């Protein structure tokens, strides 16, 4: 082989090694393999509707850690139950502040993973 081809092959090998090297800034380490986020923004609502048949907020919005790989309604309720120290049967996910309860993930509005 001539010298030019050897130089070109060496450059290709260096580029391959660069692509396979882990990111020194650590950006790739915290990613999950699933499509689930690391945390959720939730707002706790009153358990009974007021006179306008809306559930009023009890607390401001807050971040809740989401340790699960898959974004499912069951995992969502488990994360909320862990955060609020309640049984999962008491946690409910509403479509709006007027209800109704969500029965599938497709009913949750403003999701970022759609």
UniProtKB/TrEMBL annotation:
What ranges does the record give for the region Disordered, renumbered to this chain?
Answer: 1-39
Bias type Basic residues, positions: 17-32
Its domain of life reads Eukaryota
The annotated regions of Polar residues compositional bias extend over: 1-10
Q: What is this protein called?
A: Uncharacterized protein
